[in-house]
Amino acid sequence: MKRLLISFLVTLLFCTVNGEQLNLLTHAHAQQKPIPPYAKWGEYAMEKTQERYPNAKIIDYLHIGRTHGHQISTEKFKLWLKDNQREFGVFITIEFNNETQKVIKVTFKETAK
């Protein structure tokens, strides 16, 4: 009888602890970070990089920053790629119209570091 009672209490304690953990996980999930303003340009940079280097896999991503101009702004990223022969970095610069968000120019510059 004592074993059954102990087993029941352990099970009850385990369920209570797991229930609290589940509640904490659900609560933490509801407090997600906001999407950064450069996110859409990061996706664009990855798409254009994949088009330019179709045999390479993007293995890392860094947002370098944004330069605000009166009419034109620039987003800069560094992506790290790997293909069958090498690993290399690519700096991507995206110039766009502030009002229309239309891309004006995209430049790529490879780097070994």
Helix-strand layout with pairing:
Blueprint: H1 2-30, H2 39-52, E1 57-67, E2 72-82, E3 87-97, E4 103-111
Antiparallel strand pairs: 1-2, 2-3, 3-4
Overall shape: it is globular
Uncertain runs with pLDDT below 50, 5 residues or more?
A: 1-10, 12-26
* Tally of separate helices: 2
Report mean pLDDT, rounded to a whole number.
82
Helix content: 25-40%
Q: Report the span from N to C terminus.
A: 69 Å
Largest sheet: 4 strands, antiparallel
Spell out the helices and strands N to C. HHEEEE
- What's the CATH C level of the largest domain? Alpha Beta
The third-level CATH topology of the largest domain is Nuclear Transport Factor 2, Chain: A
Strand content: 35-45%
Q: Domains counted in the coordinates: how many?
A: 2
In CATH, the homologous superfamily of the largest domain goes by the name: Protein of unknown function DUF3889
Write out the strand line-up for the largest beta sheet, numbering strands in chain order. 1-2-3-4
Nearest-angstrom radius of gyration?
A: 24 Å
CATH architecture of the largest domain: Roll
How many strand units?
A: 4
The structural class is: alpha+beta
Pfam families: DUF3889
Signal peptide: 1-19
Keywords: Signal
InterPro entries: DUF3889
